[in-house]
Amino acid sequence: MDDRQQPGSKKRVVVCGGGIIGVCTAYFLAKKGAAVTLVEKSSVACAASGKAGGFLALDWCDGGPVESLARASFNLHRSLSEELNGPDSYGYRPLTTLSITVTESGPSSPSGSKSSGDSMIPSWVDGATRGPRTIGTTQTTAQVHPQLFTRTLLNTAVEKYGVEVVIGKLEQLRVEEGRVGSVVLEGGRVIESDSVVLSLGPWTGKFEMLASMFRVSGLKAHSIVLEPKDPGAITPHALFLSFHPQGGKAMDPEVYPRPTGEVYICGMSAEEEVPDDPEQIVGNPASIAMLKRVGKSVSSHLREGEARVKAEQACFLPCTDDGVPIIGEVPGMKGCYVATGH
């Protein structure tokens, strides 16, 4: 507890960043009794937290530096789903996860050329596939719709725990005697605080104070969302592909069917300069076209004419130099915390 607070008063926390990390932080702090203000520059879940795949894995980080964090996250998602009715609110569900090699067929090749005897491959995956392997079960892998999850959590935080949402751009932190005292937004608004959490994702590097301490770059990832004519045929199987396109190098796209009947396909990532405004992010047409080729190579249900393209999009994922998230209090600045690079 900050010694500047009056006895019995709530701790004032400003969380900067309306993505999944900022919203989760605001939710749990407010639930614990803090008076939380969430500051977001554009709109909640407008970047990667609204456009990512939403895939969850229990043990895929085992043996690495984030093993305990990944396991805690997976289990927390499970308990949050029970608390917030995740299956209906934001598409939480366990699912089976497969690794499959898919080869793009030529224009004259017939559909339905799945290798015989591969009984573990779902019936809707009827492209030229081989080497299926189960890499996750309903006990170890699951999914959410990230935008719906983020917004459900925030709505609950606002309605139940009194979180205030402010749309504005963080301009600076005011620090007195080595401790954060307030945040200043573009236009001059000042929000007093006892603590500040900076969850700025790939925009962390745009904030000069943090850019001098560590590097957070942006990995631009592309995705499409398809709506098959026959969504009932699509089973809950996440697919991690080794995709071999005609005349090109192998790549590793991912396919996530959702309970809504949509199918999300992502990949085609490259490091690029992060634009100032998340609303300015647009996909590369060649990358989007390749993801459509992935879809039709995986399943006849995902071909043009059999599925409507609901979204063509791109987002920036925050990346640190060593791949480990940056979490903790900023050295020399009491009450100021960073959480980014997940």
Fold and architecture overview:
The chain has 2 domains: 12-54 and 145-214 and 323-340, 3-Layer(bba) Sandwich (FAD/NAD(P)-binding domain); 96-137 and 217-320, D-Amino Acid Oxidase, Chain A, domain 2, CATH 3.30.9. Helix content is 21%, strand content 34%. The chain has helices at 20-31, 48-51, 67-84, 86-90, 146-161, 208-211, 285-298; strands at residues 12-16, 35-40, 55-57, 93-94, 96-103, 129-136, 141-143, 164-167, 170-176, 179-185, 190-192, 195-198, 216-228, 237-244, 254-257, 263-271, 307-320, 326-329, 336-340. The relative contact order is 0.19. The mean pLDDT is 91.
Structural class per helix/strand content? alpha/beta
Unreliable residue runs:
none
CATH topology type of the largest domain: D-Amino Acid Oxidase, Chain A, domain 2
- Specify the helix fraction band: 10-25%
How far the N terminus sits from the C terminus, by CA atoms, comes to: 28 Å
Rg calc: 22 Å
Just give the CATH class of the largest domain. Answer: Alpha Beta
Order of helices and strands: EHEHEHHEEEEHEEEEEHEEEEHEEE
What's the assembly state of these chains? single chain
Taking the sheet with the most strands, its summary is: 7 strands, mixed
User: How many distinct beta strands?
Assistant: 19
pLDDT averaged over residues: 91
Please tally the helical runs, counting DSSP H or I stretches of 4 or more residues.
7
Overall number of structural domains: 2
> Beta-strand percentage?
25-35%
Write the CATH architecture name of the largest domain.
2-Layer Sandwich
Side by side, the strands of the main sheet go: 6-5-14-15-16-13-17
| Net shape | elongated
